[in-house]
User: Fold these one by one.
Assistant:
Number 1:
Amino acid sequence: MAVIIDGKQVARKIREELKKECDEIKTKGIRPKLAVIMVGNNPASKIYVRNKSKACEEIGIEYEEFLLEENIEQKELIELINKLNKDNNINGILLQSPIPSHLNINEALKAINYKKDVDGFTPSSVGKLVIGEDTFISCTPYGIIKLFEEYNIDLAGKNVVILGRSNIVGKPLIQCCLNKDATVTICHSKTQNIEQYTKNADVLISAIGKAKFVTKDMVKQGAVIIDVGINRDENGKIKGDVDFEEVEKVASYITPVPGGVGPMTVAMLMNNVIKATKEQNKEKSNL
Ligand code: NAP
């Protein structure tokens, strides 16, 4: 049976450390603050945003939400981002996705000042990650790397196979795993014979959003399985992409859903807000 990777516990430990750092920052008269922009009324986004605000509260990060109407124009969204860019009391800006399809998310992300890009989605952050410079790393890939570190899972020389090529998970994960000296393969909806790749994976990371997509017969004995997927079953219960009950019998390590990658994503966002605050106040307050 596989070791179950306890993302909830690792995330709690990270939040405790961040709380100490946040207290220290406040002794210098600085109050870290995150601004979250939400457009429209997506129910899943509301849950994610609530988790983020709860984590901010626990750590002592100030939090402000900006709710925009579903039918706003791109110009209004950019104006708000520009206003938040200029506001010295705000250290991090997050644009909650998805946003309505009439808006251009890439243009909106480009407007965020890279110094406040705590989600790591701006071209500047992505480019720096690729060329190996210090930057904000997007929170889910960063959280997964932290789990590997915490469980002493060394990626060097391993075959890592990623399922899903989104800008927020799959693509930045390629770079994060490359930085750990893995050999990385990425699969997507056009990949033929996906099993031929997954069966060869020492580490298999699934981020596609389809319940029970990864079955036992797709997995190599002893593989490390990371499940990013968040899907609801017919009873409204949250499930990952992996058939957990079956796959845990052949894996060496496996993340549960919930309680695996999800809490790490929020913890790494908090990490990035503290990092942004420190960098913005480096000269002023010797942080
Ligand atoms: P996304 O933008 O919808 O991308 C899904 C990816 O999966 C696409 O690259 C797509 O391929 C690929 N895909 C879809 N069906 C496939 C199939 N049958 N075989 C192979 N690949 C397939 O998703 P996302 O935003 O990255 O999110 C993925 C999942 O992770 C969702 O369930 C989401 O809720 C979850 N998520 C969890 C966290 C967390 O913190 N735990 C964070 C972010 C996302 P194409 O590119 O070819 O269309």
Number 2:
Amino acid sequence: MKIVLIGGPGSGKGTRAKHMAKHLDLPHISTGDIFRHHLENKTEHADEIKSFIDFGNLVPDSLTIKLLKKRLEEDDCKIGFILDGFPRTMEQAKGMDIPEHVLFFDCHENTLVDRLGNRLMCQDCKHIYNLKGQRPKVENKCDGCEGDLIQREDDKEEVIRDRLKVYKKQTEPVLDFFGNKVTKFDTGKEVEESVEEILKFLRKEPVV
Ligand code: AMP
């Protein structure tokens, strides 16, 4: 099954995708994670990627599509995948096979800003925490691997507003493109509740 997640920054795509991947036994492919991997490993693409990500802009379509395509060619993606953060532009949407499901994570803008501003990430295992919700047990340390928690460069206040503008202008039109493949979910609620709702839908059980 090929599933695409679309939603603003902070709408909970990454967190929900991780849970969904575990339950559905599908690989979770995040273009944001692919880019961060290039930054950490200082690859030949790192400088170019950094010059966009740090300012809340989208990485050019050509590079994004190239790196994602390489990842999707790996064996684990043969059974399908959960795409988190792709497509983000019409060009990207038009260049891909139409997925079975496009899940639109709808979340109020104030919630997005609040979530991103309070978000911390483990610099080692990349687990996400939220200072207002999922706090770590020990301040600034990851519960799982004890790595240091950091704020992503692009979660800084001045960048958040730009990311939201980019989302509205470049990514929202993609929803119209996918038409009746799109199902909307309110992800302003707790993670467990919204994951359960999504899984019920994907397993075709009635959502109550
Ligand atoms: P994310 O982790 O999904 O919030 O992505 C972090 C950043 O990576 C975004 O703000 C963009 O700069 C970049 N990015 C992620 N996915 C894409 C994409 N599909 N197209 C272009 N840039 C992307």
